[in-house]
Write a structure and sequence with these properties.
The protein has 569 residues and is of the alpha+beta class. It has twelve helices and 13 strands. The protein has a six-stranded mixed β-sheet. A five-stranded antiparallel β-sheet has the order 2-1-5-4-3. Helix 2 (24-79) runs antiparallel to helix 6, helix 8 (321-351) packs parallel to helix 12 (475-485) and helix 9 (364-382) packs parallel to helix 10. The protein is rod-shaped, with a radius of gyration of 50 Å.
């Protein structure tokens, strides 16, 4: 429970950040409100401060004049008073603390107290209320010792205020001479509560006005951005549906403004794209149908030619040397022609999306052993040694054994063809999620450009190079499609002069993705492999990072490898 409470603010913050980043309208409205709040706040503070200073200064001027008149009036009354004793003076002073008699009609209270230089005052202090003397600070007493009129801001306690709460006030002090008593200080207390209420009213009015202005800014910004964002959202939604294949989608157009022009231009672009895509689809279907039809149609004359060729080939011993050689070449080319037709039919099935897997839980060890055994005669004729590394336990997985055997046959045959008499290594490994087979040769290798195109159809690394195995140029392209049907990977790496390496990785359970192959693309003891791939070549042929390799000291930038992977269907 505590963990959920602690993580809740983080989720809210992430949700708010996501909402902020995903909504242009929210960003514009929020930005406008923030600018409005800052502007209104600064303007309101300036106006409030100006009004406060104006009210205070105006009231202080009025009080200063009244306090000056009050001091003159009190001094005049004291100077003309007829008193015979200290008691008479005390009574007279007590009467003077009434603001109506002292000439301070708007004063909240009056205090007469002995000056600091009077050692033994003959009379006691007089005040409108007892706690008034507590409001006089030592600084104010010291300042009121001279003839100058001084003042100080104070706070009138709620017990002696008219509103029943603490009120702001100001205390004016001056000096008067009291008969038979000496120098006394006269303090008049004035309340600033009316000015405070006026200022509060002005501030409330400013706050209401500011809230109204901010609400208006937010509403106007929302309305304006809504008129702009809605067409953009419709365009984004329409573009997303177009990307999903709904090529008939169009944006509604109204008016003749800039947004309507954008909508019309967008619709024209969509219509143009629909026409082009439809044309490409038609041409692609026609091409696939042509390849398929031609492949099927060629089988009938090819069968007839095959029958005639076999009769000639069987009777070749009765022919002269030139005719015998022609019969042998005819037989070889017919075999290659049949392989090419089979590969073309297989490619056309891939293009049409008609290729299906016949998945069974099979043993990859047996397939590898069968492929190596069948390739042994070719390896012996080339002087190539086949080295096979098997795991301790059977490597089983859900696979189409026929297609996997075809992939491995292509990889091993190509490795023998390009090994230049050096050994070819076939390694098999497995883990809990995947099985992998690596075919490594140490022959002519591949350059960057060759690695980029190694899985392309009818592409050959060296067109001038003579092939003895009669390849059709479609083997690796078909192998790539077979691996993608299994949701697996087929990756390639090459280094000029140091050979090439191909790795087939298949999931142990059909349809599951493969995150990390159980076998490195390059053997761990091969220091010629680059530590990291400098660049990629797209989703269909992306550079893969060699697994579990130390950083080599003699890395050659011409060494690259490429992978062809397919996400689960």
């Amino acid at each position: 429970m505590l963990g959920r409470l602690l993580t809740a603010p983080g989720r809210w913050l992430r949700s708010a950040v996501h909402r902020w980043r995903s909504s242009l309208q929210l960003r514009v409205v929020t930005t406008a409100l923030l600018i409005g709040v800052l502007t209104v706040g600064l303007l309101g503070s300036f106006l409030s401060l100006t009004v406060r200073n104006g009210l205070f200064e105006q009231r202080i001027t009025e009080i200063d004049q009244e306090a000056t008149r009050s001091a003159s009036t009190v001094q005049h009354l004291l100077s003309n008073a007829v008193v015979d004793s200290a008691a008479d003076v005390q009574q007279f002073v007590l009467n003077l603390v009434d603001p109506r008699l002292s000439g301070a009609a708007s004063a909240h209270g009056t205090l007469l107290t002995a000056a600091g230089d009077v050692p033994m005052p003959a009379i006691n202090d007089a005040a409108t209320f007892r706690e008034m003397s507590d409001l006089v600070s030592p600084e104010l007493r010291e300042g009121a010792s001279s003839d100058a009129l001084v003042w100080q801001s104070v706070q009138i306690p709620a017990t002696h205020s008219k509103s029943g709460e603490d009120e702001p006030g100001v205390l004016f002090g001056s000096v008067v001479e009291v008969p038979l008593a000496g120098t006394f200080q006269l303090f008049n207390l004035y309340s600033l509560q009316p000015q405070q209420e006026t200022l509060r009213f002005v501030q409330n009015t400013l706050a209401i006005g500011a809230a109204t202005i901010l609400a208006t800014i937010g509403l106007l910004t929302w309305l304006v951005t809504r008129q702009t964002v809605r067409p953009v959202r419709r365009a984004a939604s329409t573009a997303a549906r177009l990307a999903d294949g709904q090529l008939h989608e169009r944006m509604p157009t109204r008016g003749y403004d800039e947004l309507a022009t954008l909508a019309r231009s967008f619709n024209e672009m969509a219509a143009s794209l629909q026409d082009q895509i439809s044309q490409h689809e038609f041409l692609s279907k026609a091409q696939r149908r042509f390849v398929s039809d031609v492949s099927h149609e060629l089988r009938t004359p090819l069968t007839t030619i095959r029958m005639a060729s076999e009769m000639i080939y069987e009777a070749r011993s009765e022919l002269d040397a030139a005719a015998m050689r022609s019969a042998e070449l005819l037989q070889q080319q017919l075999d290659r022609f049949e392989d090419l037709l089979a590969d073309l039919l297989e490619i056309s099935r891939f293009d049409a999306g008609a290729a299906m897997l016949d998945v069974e839980h099979s043993d990859l060890d047996a397939i590898v052993e069968m492929v190596v055994e069948n390739a042994q005669p070719l390896a012996e004729s080339k002087g190539v040694e086949l080295q096979v590394t098997m795991p301790g336990e059977p490597a089983t997985a859900d696979m189409d054994a026929r297609r996997v055997e075809r992939i491995l046959r292509n990889l091993v045959t190509n490795a023998i063809e390009h090994a230049e008499g050096r050994p070819v290594e076939v390694a098999l490994a497995q883990d809990d999620d995947a099985v992998a087979v690596r075919v490594r040769d140490h022959g002519i290798g591949m350059t960057i450009e060759q690695v980029d195109h190694v899985f392309d159809r009818f592409w050959r690394a060296d067109p001038a190079r003579t092939r003895t195995t009669g390849g059709t140029g479609l083997g690796l392209a078909i192998s790539r499609e077979d691996a993608r049907l299994h949701s697996g990977r087929l990756e390639a790496w090459g280094l000029p002069g140091d050979g090439a390496s191909f790795r087939l990785t298949l999931p142990r359970r059909a349809g599951l993705p493969v995150d990390r192959p159980p076998l490195s693309l390059i053997p761990e003891d091969d220091v010629a492999a680059p530590p990291t791939p400098p660049r990629g070549v797209g989703h269909e042929a992306a550079l893969a990072i060699p697994d579990l390799l130390p950083a080599p000291t003699n890395w050659n930038p011409a060494a690259w490898h490429r992978q062809d992977r397919q996400e689960p269907q």
